[in-house]
Sequence to fold (423 residues):
Amino acid sequence: MHELREDPLPAAPPPPQPRGRAIVVTSGKGGVGKTTTTANVGIALAATGARVVLVDADVGLRNLDIVLGLEARVRHHVLDVLEGNADLDDALVSDKRVPTLKLLAASQTREKDDVDTAAFRGLIERLRERCDYVLIDCPAGIEKGFQNAIVGADEAIVVCTPEVSAVRDADRVVGLLGDRLSIRLIVNRLRPALVRRGKMLSVEDVNAILRLPLLGIIADEPGVIVSTNKGEPISLDAGSQTGEAYRKIARRITGSDTSVPEAPREASFFDKLFGGQR
Amino acid sequence: MLDFFKRFFNPEPSSVTARERLRLVLLSDHLALAPDVVESLKHDLIAVISKYVDVDAANCDVTFEQQDRQVAMLANIPILGMKPAAKKPPEPPPLPEPPRIDPAPVSAAVAEPESEPVVVPEPAAPPKPRRRRRRRAAVSAAAHG
Fold:
């Protein structure tokens, strides 16, 4: 049913190495869920015991901290480190819920053009030396902020929703990422009931155009909104189907899960009636 | 009335519309993103047309435009004058470039400084876009469309 023409996991991930993997989460279009994806995948990766640093590259519009619920603990940001006004270790905020997770927040009062591309690449290099995974939350657009975000990464996760605008922009971004980065796709905000009724592009429709190895499929469900309201990413919720989808994505990244991503099941009548998140 | 029944009994799901619109917009995006391809297509096009008429090669313009249900190639090729033997196609094309005959110098009747854009329907197999993966996508899209 949901078989795709391309192998979902083309290459086995590299074996554990002294240098961590740097993965940029990008999309082109804004508002498709890059930050939510970075937060949830980051938490799920760290929950496997891996050392993870999340870097918010959206200088001027920082949001990763608030989605993670760490906004009150940010003291220093990316540009403080790049300009030598703060130690890298002081700027990394640890997450008490998942001890191996750290956040490097973006600067809210500065602009993307203030970030020197070579210096940013150097920062990502330094982070890779001290952790297993660096996840970079890329800003929307394809300008300097995007270029900075991808420069230190050698893997990319493209987040795309089943909408014509998002697919078109994702297609453009895939072209810009080029052959240097290995790219995988997360289809976000899928509504299986709409797909069944022919009112929404399916994962197959999206990937017939993007032709990327599929890393995961995330449902459009109220739980994600509720969890973001609270600053408790849904991948922390052991009972949530969407949380499990994020945890599977994390396991596909580490290489411990080689299953083909499946579309989320439709919410049943009883789910809707008693689906209890507030 | 018939239209109403058609729509009632066999409504086209909006996802089909979305797929079709995406196919077209990406085809034209990719063509626009591959200037080298457009450039070589323009070159070949001019070479073919030059067999029959003298064209103003420096002022030719080839663009792709998305129209209602298809992507159209718009070629604006100013014609300077007719070639003497334009009636019948040339026999085996001479290997070296045939000597260019100057356009009729005074005869205003022959010279056409401005030409109408020639609308050529989208070819079955679009010209090779820059990336190989893209080409596959574009070709299959055109083939199924």
Q: What stands out?
A: Residues 102-115, 122-145 of chain B have pLDDT under 50 and may be disordered. The longest strand of chain B covers residues 61-66. Helices of chain B lie at 2-9, 14-33, 35-49, 132-144. The interface with chain A takes residues 13-16, 18-19, 21-23, 25-26, 29, 33, 131, 133-134, 136-137 of chain B (CB under 8 Å).
